[in-house]
Amino acid sequence: MNNFKIGHFEIGENCKPFIIAEMSGNHNQSLDKALALVDAAAEAGAHALKLQTYTADTITMKGAYTITDENSLWKGKELHDLYKMAYTPWEWHKPIFDRAKEKGMLAFSSPFDETSVDFLETLNVPAYKIASFENTHHPLLRKVAKTGKPIIMSTGVSTLEDITESANVLKDAGCKNLIILKCTSTYPATPENTNLNAIPRLKKLFNVTIGLSDHTMGVGASVAAVALGARVIEKHFTLRRADGGVDSAFSLEPEELKSLVVESERAFLALGTDFIGVQEAEKKSLQFKRSIYVSEDINEGDLITEKNIKVIRPALGLAPKYFDVVIGKRASKKLMKGQPLQMEDLK
Asked: Given this structure, which CATH class describes domain 4-271?
């Protein structure tokens, strides 16, 4: 599993987590708000901004389906109307991408059909994201793979067989750098159905960089995912959930996105190595362990008893493990209250 670059960011096992802020439709059909989202994501420290590239007509058709699920955020909406409300106008892509680049972020998108790929190629995107619902769309996978760009693929609503087939289609069509994201395609997802323990399994099965497309509330699942080996985290992002928007209910606000950037990096750095022992940085703290001290004046030849020694800080005397050993021994010289007990102090 080799590291590779997306733009100027290095991705891989030994790299800090790569954080993607997914704008989705949270711009609420306002370009000004979309640009404000870019600015806020950059200020929060996100490494990349992601859009979704489709139109209502490239993804479905009028009258095809109305959402009836009682638990859906979008119950009662016709699918075509929902996508019409959520899509990002294609003419907005360039100003959004340009603003992201100005702010030092990468910018790319999820294409939902072949025409989207042709359009995104004109913008010279550095990578592509394959959404969970498109990951068995093999013609689209082949089209994206032929660009030669790194590909990030989500795995929601997919069997292991689906994921394996899709990974093979991508590789056979020319994809050399693949990232697979563990994903649960419920909106929002619950911690209970997130199953982060699949991350090490995916890494072992596919030998590629693994990440998490996280639809849970908050940042806890993402931070835990980093501890389990995820090195790419994608989270939906909004200015304020109260503003509304198709994905706002499970999107992070700017302060939370900043927390995700900081805490996921801390989790990565804290993994360290499997070394067990006193670290170099701890050596100065050794003195604050306990040792055996003289607690009452002791004359030469007196017995050492529990009444004239005590285990206290600092660790300048004999280690506490010698407490039972020194009891009953006689002092080799006069010992003063408050001095650390040493082996040469005993006959």
From this structure: alpha beta
